[in-house]
Amino acid sequence: MRKKKKNRNAVLVPLLITVAFFVLWELFCWAFKVDVFILPRPSVILASMWNHHTIILTNSIQTFVTTMLGFGLAVAVGLLLGMLVGASPAVYQGVYPIMVGLNSIPKVAIVPILVIWFGIGAVPAVLTAFSIAFFPIMVNVATGLATMEPELRDVLRSLGARKSHILWKVGVPRSMPFFFASLKVAIGMAFIGSVVSETMASNNGIGFLMMTASARFDVPLVFAGLFVIALMGVGMYEFFAALERRVTFWAMRGNEIVT
Tell me: the pLDDT tens digits for 153-209? Predict the structure, then answer.
């Protein structure tokens, strides 16, 4: 009974806070007569979403597909590099500084280069999503492997385990909580990368829709695009959070959160 009550509260509390936030937003704009051009009310934004639902849906699908492609590539590359960096001190010393340097480059700055290489379209959006999402995955996987206790390594070696056995049987499972934590961070960053690229180098997608709407001074449609991006981000975050609870339940502080 207590478990069901906690699960119900875990859903109701964020929902009530979210509803209260939008109600206060609505009342603030209404009470102070805030112009729609400055800050549209949530009701006006929802009306804009309904009036433009076809074009919003089409562009949302485009953004979601490009984001998932870039994110999938980031997971593959980040997981591979994270395992190499975390398992080998030599690779860590040689590759990690390069990765940090590349991650320090503003992703907005690489979009024009991607346009020169691949032209305007989905490819720059996919690569931008990849470039901004793979680093947290790589760092977390490498951290999970590199922080394995030396005593545990020594015990396993004394029992005859080879380095590859230690990596796959102990290191990889141990890094899974770090890996899933990175997925929840990286998916939001992947959406940011896609939208940034779409605002600069695309003829479709939510970013392109927001740019064209802002050029027409259609502020409610711009906010509608922001709402859609937020909804997709929250949805994917919750998906990976649920997957994390299922796969790495043994690492959680209490089985009552497992659903």
Answer: 666 666 666 766 666 767 777 888 889 999 999 999 999 999 999 998 888 999 999
Note whether 70 and 78 are within 8 A (CB).
no
Q: Model's pTM, two decimal places? A: 0.86
The rounded distance, in Å, linking the Cα atoms of 151 and 59 is 53
**105: helix, coil or strand?**
coil
Report helix, strand or coil for 6: helix
Distance CA 189, CA 200 (A): 17
Residues in the chain with pLDDT values less than 70: 1-7, 9-10, 149-161, 163-167, 169, 251-259
CATH of the structural domain 45-257, one choice from 3.40.50.300, 1.25.40.10, 1.10.10.10, 1.10.3720.10: 1.10.3720.10
Residue tagged 């760092």 (tokens) = 139
Q: For Cα atoms 91, 124, 122, give the angle at the middle one, nearest 5 degrees.
A: 130
Distances (CA, A) of 41 to 35, 52, 132, 133: 9, 17, 32, 32
Question: What is the pLDDT at residue 124?
Answer: 93
The residues spanned by each domain of the chain are 1-34, 45-257
* CB distance 67 to 194 below 8 Å: yes
> How many CB atoms within 10 Å of residue 166?
18
Q: Collect all residues with Cβ–Cβ distance below 8 Å to 241 and sequence separation of at least 6.
A: 184
Look at residue 149 in the predicted model and tell me its pLDDT. Answer: 67
- CA separation for the pair 73, 51 (Å, rounded): 35
